[in-house]
């Protein structure tokens, strides 16, 4: 099947799905990247959208050795703090309805943010807004993905949103790095900051 200049494969049965996902997975392992993905990830310089190959394997190795090691997991007291906080919230609402989905989302968001940046809530709302915009742009239908010569026209105004979103993330991460450098100079590091990913 073709959509514009792109070739598409339709998986319409369990047997074909098994072929694509298991038997021939190395052929289908590379995810297609639209204009938004290529732009926002600096041409796939991340683990989620990188082509399967040496770069992806190196990223995976780094994650396994540095981020997901047993020693690293044991050092994250912040995870235990966030779980305790969630349990206290549940305990405070005994006998009342609790939105479990919202609690789990908040827990995951807090743990991820603290692990990544070493701060509890400083700038978290801004970061969530940036990620939400990225998610919208990753999934947005862009005519230029299917008819490339329309790209210079930008009929949907997505190019301006892409530039704005990437600048917002770059500015946010730069401020986190600057904050870490400043704290390190002043020897004012929290325990979270010592074990975060910055």
Key terms for this structure?
heme binding; two-stranded antiparallel sheet; 11 helices; CYP450_84A; oxidoreductase activity, acting on paired donors, with incorporation or reduction of molecular oxygen; 198 residues; mainly alpha
On the 0-100 scale, what is the average pLDDT? Answer: 85
Strand content: under 5%
* Helical content band: 55-70%
Widest sheet: strand order?
1-2
Q: How would you characterize the overall build of this protein?
A:
Helix content is 64%, strand content 2%. The chain is an all-alpha fold and 198 residues long. It has one domain. A two-stranded antiparallel sheet has the order 1-2. β1 and β2 form a beta hairpin. α6 (77-92) runs antiparallel to α7 (100-117) and α8 packs antiparallel against α10. The N and C termini lie far apart (44 Å). The mean pLDDT is 85.
Quick overview of this protein structure:
Pfam families: p450. With 198 residues, this protein is mostly helical.
Task: Note the topology.
Layout: E1 2-3, E2 6-7, H1 14-23, H2 25-28, H3 35-40, H4 54-67, H5 70-74, H6 77-92, H7 100-117, H8 124-139, H9 143-146, H10 158-185, H11 191-195
Antiparallel strand pairs: 1-2
Helix pairs in contact: 6-7, 8-10
GO molecular function, one term: heme binding
Protein name: Ferulate 5-hydroxylase
Organism: Populus trichocarpa
């Amino acid at each position: 099947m073709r959509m514009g200049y792109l070739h598409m494969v339709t998986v319409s049965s369990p047997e074909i799905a098994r072929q694509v996902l298991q038997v021939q997975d190395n052929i289908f392992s590379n995810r297609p990247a639209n204009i938004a993905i290529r732009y926002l990830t600096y041409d796939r310089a991340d683990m989620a959208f990188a082509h399967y190959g040496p770069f992806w394997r190196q990223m995976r190795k780094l994650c396994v050795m540095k981020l997901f090691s047993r020693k690293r997991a044991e050092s994250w007291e912040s995870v235990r703090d966030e779980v305790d906080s969630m349990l206290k919230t549940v305990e405070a609402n005994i006998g009342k309805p609790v939105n479990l989905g919202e609690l789990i989302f908040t827990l995951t968001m807090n743990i991820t943010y603290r692990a990544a940046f070493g701060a509890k809530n400083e700038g978290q709302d801004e970061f969530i807004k940036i990620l939400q915009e990225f998610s919208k742009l990753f999934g947005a239908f862009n005519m230029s993905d299917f008819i490339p010569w329309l790209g210079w026209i930008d009929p949907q105004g997505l190019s301006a949103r892409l530039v704005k979103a990437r600048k917002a993330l770059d500015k946010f991460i730069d401020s986190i790095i600057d904050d870490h450098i400043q704290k390190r100079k002043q020897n004012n590091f929290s325990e979270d900051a010592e074990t975060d990913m910055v």
